[in-house]
Write a structure and sequence with these properties.
The complex is a heterodimer of chains A (186) and B (514).
Chain A lengths: L1 H24 L6 H9 L13 H9 L12 H12 L17 E5 L9 H5 L5 E2 L7 E2 L19 E5 L24
Antiparallel strand pairs in A: 1-4, 2-3
Helix pairs in contact in A: 2-3
Chain B lengths: L25 E2 L6 E4 L9 E2 L6 E2 L4 E4 L8 E2 L4 E10 L7 E9 L18 H10 L12 H4 L9 E5 L9 H24 L3 E7 L3 H13 L5 E6 L8 H9 L14 E5 H13 L5 E8 L5 E6 L4 H8 L5 E6 L6 E2 L13 E6 L17 H5 L6 H9 L3 H6 L10 H5 L6 H83 L1 H7 L1
Helix pairs in contact in B: 3-4, 3-6, 9-12, 12-13
The chains are: A mainly alpha (186), B alpha/beta (514).
C-alpha cells in the first residue's frame, strides 16, 4: 500500500516537473492563430473592417469578436480561406461592408500639393515621401491602395488610380471564359 | 553503338517539316524599321543605354543587362533611334513592353569587332563576354547562357547539345545544322571548355539524316575526340531538355533539381552557334534563323535580324489569302501573336501562318471521361486528368501539390484527348494564377513589415517625446531647486555678514556675553 502510494506520487512529481519545464522552455510567444489569420489578410491596413489595421482585425477574429466577412480588399476568396482555416461556414459580405474594388494606387497631383504632410501621417505603410512645404509623392511599389491618405488632404490632390495589367503581371485566362479557338492552335 | 534510354509516353504528330527544308537559309535583309524589345530573355529587362535620335552602329549596345539574371540587347543594324517606348510585343497577352525602334540607314555598318582566343582566355571572362553579347538559349526558354555555363559544385560530365527539334513544322535547327555545322561544333567545344565537361553528346532525331551527316562530318574534320553525334528516335517531345538528357544519358532530372547538379548541362545547337559567333567573331546575338511556314507560297528558313516585323518577314515567303492568324513556335507549344506588326525576338524560332484549312477550329470541348490516355503520353509522368480537374475548379494549390510545375506544356495530352479538352490552357491558367498569388503574398509581406515598422516608429517617437518632456520637467525642477538652494545660501552669507558687522560694531558685546 505505502509503496504504491510512494511510486505514484514519485511519478506524479516527475511528470509535473517535466510539464513545468516544457511550459517554460517551449513557450509559444503570441497567439499562433492570430498570425495564421493575419497571413490570409491582404495587409492593406485600410481599416475598412473597422479595426485599425490587419493585425487587430486578426486578433479580433481569433478572439471570436469579429465576423470573417469584413475585409473587402481580401475579396470572397479571402473569406473562403478564413472559413477554411477556422472551420466556419462561408458568409458573404454584409450590406454594411464596402464593395471590393480593383487594386489601385494613390497618385498625388504634384502641382496641387501644398506640402501639408497630413497624408504622410495617414499612410499606414510609410509609402509617401515628402516634407513640410515640400511636394509629396507616393512610392508606387509600396502603396497598398488603402485610401487612408485621401480624406485628410485639404486640397483634394490625391487620386486613386486602378493598376493596369502589364506584361509581367498578365495572367492566362481560365479557358472556360475565353473563346477557345483563339488561344490554342492545332 | 551507344545504349539509348526511353522517357514515358510521347506522341507522333504529322511532322510537316519537308515543306520548309526544300530551300536553303535565305537572308531576310533590312526591313523598313526594327522594333527591338529590351526584355527578350528570362530575367530582368535590360536597361536602355541609347537615346532617341542617336546614330547607332550595327552591334552597338541597346540595353545593358541588369541584375544577375539578365542579358544584353544590341542594335541589329546601323541607323537612327526613332523611339524608346512601349510597343506591342510577341507575347500572348498582346500587351506593350519597352522597345527601341531603329530606322536602318541601309549601310549596315558594324561596330569594330574583335576575335577572342577562347583557350587563352579565362572562362570567367568568356562568360562575361557571352552575357554582354546577349547570348541566350535559342531553344525557346531564352535563359541567359552565361549562367548555365558556370560549373557547379559537382563536376560536369556530359554536355548535351540539343538538335532534336521534335516539334512539327519547325526546321530552323535542322537547316542550321545542315549549313553551318562547323560553327555549331566549334561553339559546342567552347562550351565544353567552359564547363570542363568530359564529353559532348549531340542528339539529333533520326528524321534529319542530312543534319546528322553534316554534324558528323564537322566533328571529324575538327578532330573533336570528346564529341559524338547520336541519332535519337523521332518522338514528340524528344527535344525537351529533360527528355533528351534521359534518352542520351539515362539520367532522370527530378523535380526541382538542376541537371547541372547531376553532372549534365543541355544547350540548343543554335545557342552553340551564337556563342561561337560571339567569341570567335565578336558578334553579339542580333539575328537568328526563323522558319516561316504554313499558309505561305514558299515555306523557308530565313536569317532574320531581331526586331524585324513579322508581316515584312512573311511577305518574303509570299503571303497567301486565307490566313487567319500567326503562330509563334510550333502547333503544339506555340502561342498566337497579337498582331502581324510585332517584331521577331530571340525566342522566335518559327512563324506559322495559320488558315482554316491547316488548323480547323477544334471541335467543342466535352467532359473528361477519365480515360487516362493523357497519362499514357505525358513525358513528365504526371496525372494530367487530375491537374485538369484542379485547374478547372481553380483549386490551384492542389494542382501545385500534384506537381503542376513539372509540366513542360508540350501539349501531348491535349493532342490525344478524345474529349478535345485544351488541357495545356488549363495548366497555363493555373500556373499564372499561382505566380500571381505569390506576387500578392510577397507584396502583403512587405506591407506587413512596413506597417509594423510604422507602428514601431510612432511608438518610438512617442517615447522620445515623452522622454524629452520628462527631461525638460526634471531640468525645470532641478533649476528651481538650485534657485532655492541659491537663495538660502545667499541668506546664510548675509547672516554671516550681519554677524561680522555686529561684531565690528560692538566688539565687546560678545565678550560681555562670555
Amino acid at each position: 500500500m505505502l509503496t504504491a502510494l510512494l511510486v505514484m506520487s514519485f511519478i506524479a512529481l516527475v511528470l509535473g516537473a517535466v510539464l513545468g519545464f516544457s511550459a517554460i522552455k517551449f513557450r509559444v510567444e503570441g497567439n499562433p492563430l492570430v498570425d495564421k489569420i493575419d497571413a490570409i489578410l491582404p495587409q492593406t491596413q485600410c481599416g475598412q473592417c473597422s479595426f485599425p489595421g490587419c493585425k487587430p482585425y486578426a486578433t479580433a477574429i481569433a478572439a471570436g469578436e469579429a465576423d470573417i466577412n469584413r475585409c473587402p480588399p481580401g475579396g470572397e476568396e479571402g473569406i473562403r480561406k478564413l472559413a477554411e482555416l477556422l472551420g466556419k461556414d462561408f458568409v458573404p459580405f454584409g450590406e454594411d461592408t464596402a464593395a471590393t474594388k480593383p487594386k489601385s494606387v494613390a497618385v498625388i497631383d504634384e502641382n496641387t500639393c501644398i506640402g501639408c504632410t497630413l497624408c504622410i501621417q495617414a499612410c499606414p505603410v510609410d509609402a509617401i515621401s515628402g516634407a513640410a512645404k515640400q511636394m509629396h509623392t507616393v512610392i508606387e511599389a509600396e502603396c497598398t491602395g488603402c485610401e487612408l491618405c485621401v480624406p485628410p488632404c485639404p486640397v483634394e490632390c490625391i487620386d486613386m488610380v486602378v493598376i493596369r495589367e502589364s506584361i509581367t503581371t498578365w495572367k492566362f485566362r481560365h479557358p472556360a471564359t475565353v473563346n477557345s479557338s483563339n488561344n490554342q492552335p492545332a | 553503338m551507344r545504349k539509348l534510354y526511353h522517357f514515358n509516353g510521347g506522341v507522333h504528330p504529322p511532322t510537316h517539316k519537308a515543306e520548309s527544308t526544300q530551300l536553303p537559309i535565305r537572308h531576310a535583309g533590312l526591313p523598313s524599321r526594327l522594333v527591338v524589345p529590351l526584355h527578350q530573355h528570362a530575367g530582368s529587362t535590360a536597361k536602355p543605354t541609347v537615346r532617341v535620335g542617336d546614330r547607332i552602329l550595327k552591334g552597338q549596345l541597346f540595353g545593358m543587362p541588369e541584375g544577375s539574371v539578365s542579358s544584353a540587347v544590341h542594335a541589329p543594324t546601323s541607323g537612327t533611334v526613332e523611339a524608346i517606348d512601349m510597343q506591342v510585343v510577341a507575347h500572348p497577352s498582346g500587351l506593350p513592353d519597352l522597345c527601341v525602334t531603329l530606322i536602318p540607314d541601309g549601310r549596315d555598318e558594324w561596330l569594330p569587332r574583335t576575335s577572342t582566343q577562347y583557350l587563352a582566355t579565362p572562362p570567367e571572362e568568356l562568360r562575361l563576354m557571352l552575357r554582354l553579347a546577349g547570348v541566350v538559349g535559342l531553344g525557346g526558354a531564352v535563359f541567359p547562357s552565361d549562367l548555365k555555363l558556370r560549373p557547379g559544385k559537382h563536376k560536369v560530365k556530359t554536355l548535351v547539345l540539343n538538335g532534336a527539334e521534335c516539334e512539327p513544322y519547325i526546321t530552323c535547327d535542322d537547316m542550321l545544322m545542315r549549313e553551318r555545322a562547323d560553327e555549331i561544333v566549334r561553339g559546342a567545344e567552347m562550351m565544353r571548355h567552359m564547363l570542363e565537361a568530359d564529353e559532348v553528346l549531340i542528339g539529333i532525331e533520326d528524321n534529319k539524316p542530312e543534319a546528322i551527316a553534316a554534324m558528323q562530318k564537322a566533328v571529324s574534320e575538327n578532330h573533336f575526340s570528346k564529341m559524338e553525334v547520336i541519332a535519337v528516335p523521332t518522338i514528340y517531345p524528344g527535344g525537351g531538355a529533360k527528355q533528351l538528357i534521359r534518352v542520351l544519358t539515362g539520367i532522370e532530372v527530378a523535380a526541382g533539381v538542376r541537371s547541372l547538379d547531376l553532372g549534365v548541362q543541355c544547350f540548343n545547337v543554335a545557342t552553340a552557334y551564337s556563342a561561337h559567333r560571339a567569341i570567335e567573331h565578336g558578334e553579339p546575338l542580333i539575328s537568328r534563323i526563323v522558319t516561316v511556314t504554313g499558309n505561305v507560297q514558299h515555306a523557308q528558313n530565313f536569317e532574320v535580324l531581331i526586331g524585324t516585323p513579322v508581316n515584312e518577314l512573311v511577305a518574303l515567303a509570299g503571303a497567301k489569302p486565307g490566313t487567319n492568324g500567326h503562330i509563334m513556335g510550333g502547333p503544339m507549344m506555340g502561342v498566337p501573336l497579337p498582331s502581324s506588326q510585332v517584331a521577331v525576338t530571340k525566342a522566335t524560332n518559327c512563324i506559322i501562318e495559320s488558315s482554316l484549312a491547316l488548323f480547323p477550329p477544334p471541335p467543342p470541348e466535352l467532359p473528361c471521361i477519365r480515360c487516362t490516355r493523357c497519362v499514357e503520353v505525358c513525358p513528365a509522368e504526371l496525372q494530367p486528368q487530375d491537374l485538369y480537374w484542379f485547374a478547372k475548379a481553380k483549386n490551384v494549390g492542389k494542382a501545385q501539390e500534384h506537381h503542376l510545375f513539372d509540366c513542360i506544356e508540350c501539349g501531348a495530352c491535349s493532342y490525344v484527348c478524345p474529349s478535345n479538352i485544351p488541357l495545356v490552357q488549363y495548366y497555363r491558367f493555373a500556373k499564372s494564377e499561382i505566380w500571381a498569388n505569390e506576387r500578392e503574398k510577397d507584396a502583403a509581406n512587405i506591407a506587413r513589415e512596413r506597417h509594423e515598422f510604422h507602428l514601431l516608429r510612432i511608438e518610438r517617437d512617442k517615447q522620445d517625446k515623452a522622454e524629452k518632456l520628462a527631461q525638460k520637467e526634471r531640468a525645470a525642477l532641478a533649476a528651481k531647486a538650485a534657485a532655492q538652494a541659491g537663495k538660502s545660501a545667499d541668506a546664510a552669507s548675509i547672516d554671516v555678514l550681519r554677524a561680522q558687522v555686529r561684531e565690528i560694531a560692538h566688539p565687546d558685546a560678545g565678550l560681555t556675553k562670555e
